[in-house]
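HOLO CASE FILE
Compound: manganese (II) ion
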Amino acid sequence: VHRRDPSTESETLKECFRFLNMTSRSFSAVIQELDHELLVPISLFYLVLRGLDTVEDDMTIPLSKKIPLLRDFHNTMEIDGWQYHESQEKDRELLEKFDVVITELKKIKPTYYAIIKDVTIKMGNGMADYAQNDEMIKSGVDTIEEYELYCHYVAGLVGEGLTRLFVASELGNPKLAERPSLTESMGQFLQKTNIIRDIREDWEEGRRWYPKEIWSKHVDRWEDLFDPKQEEKALNCISDMVLDALKHCEECLFYMAGMREQSVFNFVAIPQGMAIATLELVFRNPDVLKRNVKITKGDACQLMTECTQNLYTVCEVFRRYARRIQRKNDPRDPNYLNISVRCGKIEQFIETLYPRQ
Ligand code: PS7
Ligand code: MN
Ligand code: MN
Ligand code: MN
Ligand code: MN
Ligand code: MN
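Model generated. Tokens follow.
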């Protein structure tokens, strides 16, 4: 069922949907299948955060301009006619015509608007705290705690905002709002996967999100991860990062068990399924150190089918990829045993949800 009805849409809203299709590969389709009540609010939520992220990612904007832009974005998104023409990023057209998003934001229910604004305040300030720059002597994150705080700002808060929208619209189980750690895990799992996969691209752009607390166990200098002679150590470092991301799986499955509406279930489950498949793809894969890897179209299609059914089929996806990670696990990896135990725990958890006789 297609929930959009273009005949009732204003020109500015049509433009917003064009931006949604232009800027998001994985989210645009699932967002547009959402229940009518949340379709426009979540599309605009996405575009606001995409605008903020376009500023964050643009390494041609000096920090003296970028930091105030990020910190003030929640005020900026209320200024009629506001546009930004100084970005060099791929999605710069969104900022160049951001006034259409502002126009449409003013039409949504105040409850929904307040949630979007609250997340924008917190995310913009968090991004500003972590803004990196190549002239900086100390660049990148040091501890796992700092790494998780960054993931909280850019993804945990999205989860929080979405959960508040699901509950406010009565499409989500109100009990979810009482379990912030489940919501946080949903965001952490997606963001950590993105960071693990983007190691090479982020480094080429002058950013480093892997925490020193993890990579320094494997190499002396960050650059050594990209030295072909030290490939084995780099793969062990990626394993360490994958092991850390896998700790969120059980809470993600638990969160998804709380969904009560099919379009919302699909919207939350598809990205999670893509994430576990991506973790399996990057695990012990030397290509990650050289270029951006992506799951195949065929795998993505199968995942879409499986993640739009029910919790059981999503559990099957998690179990399949946990087993594939087990199979690729290398006894020479210092985390061999930890990874094996972690994958076993995920399988056990699924077993408790759906016991076999
Ligand atoms: C469902 C409880 C409002 C739908 C969905 C734009 C993707 C872009 O792509 O390295 O490598 O450049 O710069 C929890 C989505 C977390 C976020 C974070 C799930 C908004 C989104 C802005 C919570 C998505 C995780 C930056 C920040 O990384 O990316 C539930 C909707 C979700 C946007 C994502 C992305 C961060 C990001 P890239 P970056
Ligand atoms: Mn980005
Ligand atoms: Mn970013
Ligand atoms: Mn321009
Ligand atoms: Mn990234
Ligand atoms: Mn990027």
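CASE NOTES: The CA atoms of residues 297 and 303 lie 10 Å apart. The first helix runs from residue 11 to 23.
CLOSED: yes
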